[in-house]
Amino acid sequence: MGDIDADHRLHAQVPEGLPSGPVRVLVLFPDEEEAGIVWANGVAKEWSEELADSGQDIYSLNDGLPLNAPR
Predict the structure, then answer these.
(1) pTM of the model
(2) pLDDT of the residue at 32
(3) What DSSP character marks residue 54?
(4) How many C-beta neighbours within 10 Å does residue 38 have?
(5) Residue, of 15 and 33, whose pLDDT is higher
(6) Rounded to 10 degrees, what is the CA torsion of 57, 63, 67, 71?
(7) Are 35 and 27 within 8 A, CB to CB?
């Protein structure tokens, strides 16, 4: 188990029987709702410039059909 501090550093304690050396770490958030917020904020940050580009607006509300439209 571990904690992430305000400087985005991971602090963790592992069982004594584990050998020292490099490891791969998988981070699981304690609450699924919190993880969703973190994911959404990360996507918004990474894609903010692209999403703000009006050249990316290739669809409008008049495009397509509603999901429940007859086929």
Answers:
(1) 0.36
(2) 61
(3) G
(4) 12
(5) 15
(6) -150
(7) no
